[in-house]
Amino acid sequence: MLALFQMVGLLGLLQGVQLAHRQEWKQPGGSHEQPLPPMRDRYDFAIVIPAGGIECLWQFAHRNGSFFFSYQVQRTSGLGHDRHILATVNDPNGLHLDTSQDVRGQINFLTRETGFYQLCLSNRYNHFGTVQVYLNFGVFYDLETTELKRTELNGTLEAIEKSTTKLIIDVFHMWRYFNFARMRSRTDFNLLQSNCTYMNWWSAAQSVAIVLSGILQLHFLKSLFARQPNNKPKC
Hints:
The protein has helices at residues 2-20, 155-224; strands at residues 25-26, 33-34, 40-49, 54-61, 65-78, 85-90, 96-102, 104-110, 115-122, 129-141. The longest helix has 70 residues, at 155-224. Helix 1 packs antiparallel against helix 2. The protein is α+β, with helices and mostly antiparallel strands. Strand 1 (25-26) and strand 2 (33-34) form a beta hairpin. The strands form three sheets. A four-stranded antiparallel sheet has the order 3-10-5-8, covered by helices on one side. A four-stranded antiparallel sheet has the order 4-9-6-7, with no helix packed on it. Strands 1-2 form a two-stranded antiparallel sheet. One of its GO terms (cellular component) is endoplasmic reticulum membrane.
C-alpha cells in the first residue's frame, strides 16, 4: 500500500512538471487556439444491465488519440446464466467502428475525429437474468504526434519533458494492466463464491434425499412384516 501511494505521488509530481512545460495547440482545420487535451482520460467502474436490456455510454476524445475499451462480466443473477454480452463502439458521426461478443473483451482504436464516441453494452442473450459488467475505458494522447506550437526551449528542459512524458505514459499503461488483472481476479472470486454456494445447497439436498430414502425403505420393510387381523403374517 505504501508503494502504491508513493507511485501516485510520483505520478502527480511528473504531471505537474509536464503541465508546466505544456503549450497551446491548434485544432486541425480551425483558426482558433484551444487548450492542449489532457494526456489521458480514463474511467473504471461496474454497471448492471437488466435482462434483455442495453446500456450506452459516451466518451469525449480529440483526434489522434488512442482509445481503449475493455470489459468483463463479473456475475449474473436471475433465471438466466448466459455470461456473453455484445459490446459495440460508434464514432461521433454514428458510424460503427468495432464489435466484441464474449464474456470479456477489448476494443482499441485510433480516434480519427474529435467528438463523443458511443460505447454500448447489450444483454440480448440473457432474457431472464441481469449481468454485472466491469468497464475500463478512456483515451490517451502521444504528445509527439499532436500538433503543438512550441517556443524555443532549453535543451535540458526539453529532454526532461520528453523523459517525463514517456514515464507518465508507461505508468499509465502499467495501471491499465493492473486494472485488468484486478478485474479478472474479482470475476474469479465471484465465480468461486457462486460455485461454493451451489455445492452447499446441492449437498444439503442430497443428504435430505438420502435420509428420506432410508426412512421410506424402513417403513416399507416394516409393512411387509405387519400382521393381519387373522394373525397371519404377509410373508
